[in-house]
Q: What sequence folds into this?
């Protein structure tokens, strides 16, 4: 099979190779990959290394079941599936309360195992979730990283309420474009923040943004809409580059939540500013299987949209990363097609 492979860290070491098709163990399934999403997690894996080495990255993908292990039940050859990308043992204290994303013996498919930037991939059967009718495979490919991360941040961690003022930084990205949708779905007033606001305004407003502004314009608008009080929730997965501004925008008794640090993770926090305003800072990572199933249901009922920017062949993987990071009008996902 053809696969994206690197044998040492660095994007310059990524190449297409012919490798042996993996075989599933008794509790695994073999998936013929149809679409794979391109995400920052894949970029960091390529530049930091994964397991095993040489390594096939790709943490977000969908496909069709080609073979099932001898112990597998409830899923069959020919089923279209999306892959819940968190490995979990099902027995630790977090798994037992439904938070597989925090499994103490877990990890990410595509990071601690070979991933979906290939024609075929092997995954545990419990990670393969059947795609309902009415959902395209390309649409489903946007869910396991971008949508699931955003859903978990907005609803499980931050608990957004109707009428709240929510500010989303990095609103054009994989997570941000879904965070805009979900905050609006919850009944919030949504400000989408992007340095390329003028080029993406229409697309973000179609996803539910009430306002689309640049970082430089955000403070003035938040003050205007809140009578100077600030935002009830700020979502910021951008990291170091926007931290000072985004934390400053939070209202007293408000919340700030992140699930990433694309521009760096080292920031300076003023403890007096934190406690005097009673601000809640929240971390969030991925989401649960139950939440992914919920997202598939919402997509099948057309309650949400799957923002897809472009689709490229697998051998265009380096171009796909350039597009994800540099395209000035990108809103949503870049997908690879094996």
A:
């Amino acid at each position: 099979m053809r696969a994206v492979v690197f044998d040492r860290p660095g994007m310059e070491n990524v190449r297409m190779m012919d490798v042996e098709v993996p075989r599933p163990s008794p509790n695994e399934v073999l998936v013929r990959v149809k679409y794979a999403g391109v995400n920052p997690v894949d970029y960091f894996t390529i530049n930091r290394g994964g397991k095993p080495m040489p390594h096939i990255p790709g943490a977000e993908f969908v496909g069709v079941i080609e073979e099932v292990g001898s112990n597998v039940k409830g899923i069959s050859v020919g089923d279209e599936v999306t892959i819940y990308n968190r490995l979990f043992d099902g027995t630790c204290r977090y798994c037992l309360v439904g938070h597989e994303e925090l499994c103490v013996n877990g990890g990410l498919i595509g990071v601690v195992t070979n991933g979906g930037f290939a024609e075929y991939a092997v995954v545990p059967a419990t990670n393969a979730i059947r795609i309902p009718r009415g959902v395209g495979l390309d649409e489903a490919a946007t869910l396991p990283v971008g949508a699931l991360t955003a859903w978990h941040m907005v609803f499980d961690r931050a608990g957004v309420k109707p009428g709240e003022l929510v500010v989303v930084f990095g609103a054009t990205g994989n997570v941000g474009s879904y965070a805009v949708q979900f905050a609006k779905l919850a009944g919030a007033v949504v400000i989408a923040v992007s340095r390329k606001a003028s080029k993406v305004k229409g697309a973000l407003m179609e996803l539910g943004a009430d306002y689309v502004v640049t970082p430089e314009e955000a403070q003035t608008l938040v003050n205007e809409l809140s009578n100077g009080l600030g935002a009830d929730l700020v979502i910021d997965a951008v990291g170091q580059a926007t931290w000072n501004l985004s934390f400053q925008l939070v209202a007293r008794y408000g919340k700030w939540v992140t699930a990433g640090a694309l521009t760096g993770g080292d920031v300076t926090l003023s403890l007096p500013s934190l406690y005097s305003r009673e601000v809640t800072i929240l971390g969030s990572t991925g989401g649960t299987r139950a939440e992914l199933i919920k997202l598939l249901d919402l997509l099948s009922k057309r309650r949400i949209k799957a923002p897809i920017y472009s689709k490229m062949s697998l051998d265009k993987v380096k171009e796909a990363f350039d597009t994800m990071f540099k395209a000035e009008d990108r809103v949503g996902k870049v997908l690879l097609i094996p």
The first strand starts at residue 2 and ends at 5. Residues 64 and 208 are 32 Å apart (CA to CA). The chain has two domains: 2-144+287-336, 158-283. The chain has ten helices and 17 strands.
